[in-house]
Design brief:
Number of domains: 3
Oligomer: single chain
Number of strands: 0
Shape: globular
Number of helices: 15
Largest sheet: none
Length: 298
């Protein structure tokens, strides 16, 4: 019988007999295609990052990924964490960019809108960053645009009108969004809503720390955002600041953060909880070396 396969001079893919048997017995075409796509990338990319390459929407690729997980052919999604962009992101050249711009009207629109938002013509490496966010991380075009707008607004708020973020900043934030699972417009909108609320509260926290009306610098904002996410109101932060100054004779952000982290681990967030923890009035002082860390700073 004649050979029905057409062999091409290209790199071969090897599917083990066990994997082939599992896929054939399951009879799920999407799972088989996704598995082949993963093999083509030597298993170095996340399944969901192949949505652009396979031209699938998010629900379709997630369903195929779930099947592969059930078959034991890929790690569970919870174990799959996006790598750091500087180390692992694929390199997209001129041909890759041209191909995507030619065959994807959605990606062309995204590129044009990002150029308009940033006020500059994107270079091939710039577009490669967008392609990586879309193709490698699997972020939809509408989410990427919200990401770019968020980065642009944040830079202008810190550095003034006319300033704009670099593509590396946008890429780094994109990886952060991917780690947080922000991969739909609804999830992005919810995140941006909470971000705006945190930003609106920043002046209260700065005043609580005795820093006046100036806006926080980037490193300060990181601490303040973390403390808000832990659930500390400005009054509790002010109390931690007082204890920090008492110990260090000045505000040391890292020391203050240590106090708040210990309170957070002990479930203490309000001033009332911190000062009036439900412990018996006749509680004996702990012996040397046994002091509860949560009470070191109370």
């Amino acid at each position: 019988m004649a050979n029905v396969l057409i062999h091409e001079a290209d790199e071969s893919l090897t599917v083990t007999a066990a994997a082939a048997r599992k896929l054939l017995e399951r009879g799920d075409g999407d799972a088989a295609l996704l598995y082949l796509a993963l093999l083509r990338h030597h298993g170095t990319v996340m399944p969901r990052s192949l949505a652009g390459e396979l031209r699938w929407d998010r629900p379709r690729i997630e369903e195929a990924e779930q099947v592969l997980g059930q078959l034991g052919l890929i790690a569970a999604p919870a174990e799959t964490v996006p790598p750091e962009p500087a180390d692992e992101r694929p390199s997209y050249g001129r041909d890759d960019v041209a191909d995507r711009l030619e065959r994807s009207g959605e990606f062309r629109t995204l590129t044009a809108e990002v150029e308009r938002r940033l006020g500059k013509k994107l270079t091939t490496p710039d577009i490669g960053v967008l392609l990586g966010l879309n193709d490698y991380l699997g972020l939809p075009a509408d989410v990427i645009y919200l990401l770019v707008c968020h980065c642009a607004e944040r830079v202008q708020r810190h550095y003034g009108p006319g300033r704009r973020p670099g593509m590396k900043q946008i890429e780094k934030e994109g990886y952060a969004w991917a780690r947080m699972g922000i991969d739909t417009q609804a999830a992005a909108a919810e995140y941006l809503k909470k971000y705006a609320q945190r930003q609106g509260a920043m002046p209260q926290y700065m005043r609580a720390l005795g820093l006046g009306e100036r806006p926080p610098v980037a490193s300060e904002e990181k601490y303040l955002s973390a403390w808000q996410e832990m659930g500390f109101p400005p009054e509790a932060v002010a109390l931690a600041c007082d204890k920090t100054v008492l110990k260090c004779h000045e505000l040391k952000w890292a020391y203050c953060n240590g106090i708040l982290k210990r309170w957070h681990e002990a479930g203490l967030h309000t001033v009332e909880q911190i000062e009036n923890k439900d412990r018996p009035a006749d509680r004996q002082a702990p012996g040397p070396g046994t002091m509860d860390d949560a009470w070191k700073y109370v």
